[in-house]
Amino acid sequence: IPVDPFDLVVFGGTGDLARRKILPGLYRRYVAGQIPEGSRIIGSARGDMDDAGYRDFASEAISEFLDGTKRDPQSVARFLDHLYYVPTDARGENGWPDLAKRVRADVVQAFYFSVAPSLFGDLAERLHRHGIAGPEARIVVEKPFGRDLETAKELNATLAEHFDESQIYRIDHYLGKETVQNLMAVRFANILFEPLWNARHVDHVQITVAETVGVGGRGAYYDTSGAMRDMVQNHLMQLLCLIAMEPPYRFDPDAVRDEKLKVIRALLPAAPEDIVRGQYRGRTGKGSPKQASYSEDAENPSSTTESFIAMKVHIANWRWKGTPFYLRTGKRLRGRASEIAIVFKEVPHSIFGDEEGWRENVLSIRLQPDEGMTLSVMIKEPGPGGMRLTEVPLDMSFAEALGEDGADIPDAYERLIMDVIRGNQTLFMRGDEVEAAWAWTDPLIAAWEARGDKPKGYDAGSSGPEDALMLLHRDERRWREIR
Ligand code: BG6
């Protein structure tokens, strides 16, 4: 979908996110022909730099974070012509008049706040006082959106002083992932799944976001955050909402977000015995490299922050009553694998008797790596051996299905930034959604803090603490394997 020429200002323009995601992502969209000539990308931060310096910075970021097959020197050079830099001081007055001269009033305006949330208010206020942001300007903000309900409400109130909700784009980059959007297409563009998509036919749902990385380098943030705030409150909740929500009446931002909000509001508080928190222990590698323990990676070595969490969650509504949703996420696990698995119930009566190899149907939705979906079905084992059943996958790899283009699936940030420019808020969190998510997580966190609960240790490179396995064993179920 074509976009109009725009001015995009990236505050925190020399920061980590700009380097890793925003600038390489914008380059990729440029190559795809989505950045119209006449558009400007204006980096801004406190440090002094000129346009040429910023172009060098962006060029290095592109070389570092895009592999050689995804860039070429001529198009990089043409892309860099669209880049500018204006130093501004978020808390002072320096630079703002210069920025006012650079940002045009007659094109789409977007301001990416890739800075600490404590600066959101200062930036928003100055953008107005200096007459930079027009009535249709859009702002993009990143997580963490607060650290509890109170701070999220404060942030929402601060932004609301300067911008209308329709101008605010709260990024949850999980919503920009190809498979996550495909989840909506699969659910609502096919007749096959929807009739089965309820407690009558779904035994349980598993959502796993497993990472191999530790918290190295981010200890100071992570010590005060942990997996619940860092991953569950946002990414896992968003995935849960997309699976559990009712069909929106239209694929329209508020229609979709209304349905997601209803799911969050219908979540029952998780019982203490249904939550398992873990923290990784190091491994001195024989044959494999040494992996540090959480206490070595942390800022505060005695931190009781969880680097892993598993929980059983219930949704109190007609569709899902009685179907548990098991959520699990952690760092330093044995594989990087994110998957949603819809595990269907058994057939009501097996005409084949007690088949040993019998398995339930599972729809597995892989977010990464190897994006795609697999539906496992039972068939007759080929050959003359009589009626023996075996499980085969109906496999759909998105990269394969879409041919060459598919192999080049855009990164979540690329897609989301272009949605901002197009003015499409569907894949962004609304203020009330974020607040409702905190309202659900806050009491759970407060309860384990009040109990003085300590996370269980688990070995780096494992599947998490033993107790997490028990969470499903207790219910006579088992986790899908993390590969
Ligand atoms: C971020 C978290 O939001 O998501 C990180 O702060 C986490 O801790 C990251 O590593 C995971 O994102 P992805 O896209 O690599 O799965």
Automatic annotation (TrEMBL):
SUPFAM superfamilies listed in its UniProt record: Glyceraldehyde-3-phosphate dehydrogenase-like, C-terminal domain, NAD(P)-binding Rossmann-fold domains
EC id: 1.1.1.49
Cited PROSITE patterns: G6P_DEHYDROGENASE (PS00069)
UniProt-listed Pfam families: G6PD_C, G6PD_N
Single annotated GO MF: glucose-6-phosphate dehydrogenase activity
UniProt-annotated binding residues for substrate: 173, 177, 211, 230, 331
Example GO BP: glucose metabolic process
Active-site residues per Swiss-Prot or TrEMBL entry: 235 (proton acceptor)
GO terms for cellular component: cytosol
Domain Glucose-6-phosphate dehydrogenase NAD-binding intervals: 9-182
The UniProt record lists the keyword Oxidoreductase: yes
Region of interest (Disordered), ranges: 278-302
Alphabetical UniProt keywords: Carbohydrate metabolism, Glucose metabolism, NADP, Oxidoreductase
Pathway per the UniProt entry: Carbohydrate degradation; pentose phosphate pathway; D-ribulose 5-phosphate from D-glucose 6-phosphate (oxidative stage): step 1/3
Source organism superkingdom: Bacteria
Catalytic activity: D-glucose 6-phosphate + NADP(+) = 6-phospho-D-glucono-1,5-lactone + NADPH + H(+)
Keyword match Oxidoreductase: yes
Physiological role: Catalyzes the oxidation of glucose 6-phosphate to 6-phosphogluconolactone.
Protein name: Glucose-6-phosphate 1-dehydrogenase
Organism per entry: Albidovulum aquaemixtae
